[in-house]
Structure of Putative TIM-barrel fold metal-dependent hydrolase:
Amino acid sequence: MPDDFPIVDAHQHFWDLERNYHPWLCDPEPIAFRYGDYSAIRRTYMPSDYRVDSAGHRIVKTVHVEAEWDRSTPVAETRWLESVAAEHGLPSAIVGHAEPDRDDIEEVLAGHAASPLVRGIRHKPAAAARPDEARRGAKGSMDDPKWRAGYALLERFGLSYDLQTPWWHLPAAADLAADFPATQIIINHTGLPADRSPEGLAGWRRALQEVAARPNVALKISGLGRPGLPWTVEANGPIIRDAIAIFGVDRCMFASNYPVDRLAGPFATIFAGFRAAVADLGEAEQRLLFHDNAIRFYRL
């Protein structure tokens, strides 16, 4: 793959902590975070910072995914990002936040959909902390009738759904995809394979296989960091190759998750790892993973 290969970064974040309220970044008390200590990213991060981090890579477009903005005003993040894009040329598209079971979900979706940059929404449904605690039908989950009633509105507004959930809830996602076949689902962060034990990875693979059977589901390969450990292709290459084998090269896309994944490794290390993991694929297949699929799924 040539060094000037065009890349669409399908998942990144900006925040201005002097102007806007992101509780997890602004509040004195940190949250429990899957990468552990995240104090290093509790500072403003804007397109100029992203361009420094991604220097040496031909980033042609980016997709901004909601960054845990104040949940009382989700559409305000979209309006702010429109101004950022107008001034800085990034992001190229937006995935806003919406809780499908909130009472004013139709108004929130209409607010997002009014932006020409918005392609979809992200929401993290109610989830169990461990596979053996997973139960179907919980309030706020993908099975909840009120949640599903809000989700059903995505088709009317022409919006896709970015799903971030532990892999043990992907069977519910498979049913959601089957029941709403016109809505594109994009699974975030490789289905969160945090448990790298043989048993954990076997469960992750089974869950991916179940949801990959639905043609309206795609996968973002990103978010592969682990607390206190560096990002290495030795650790993450097998995960990447398994994910692509399950979903196929036409339904996967690479993404930085920057600046969050700065906690796992430099931008260059992560993208070099992506490239090394798929070095045996032809250039056309690599182009799908790094560029073309994101263009298609996010309508860029």
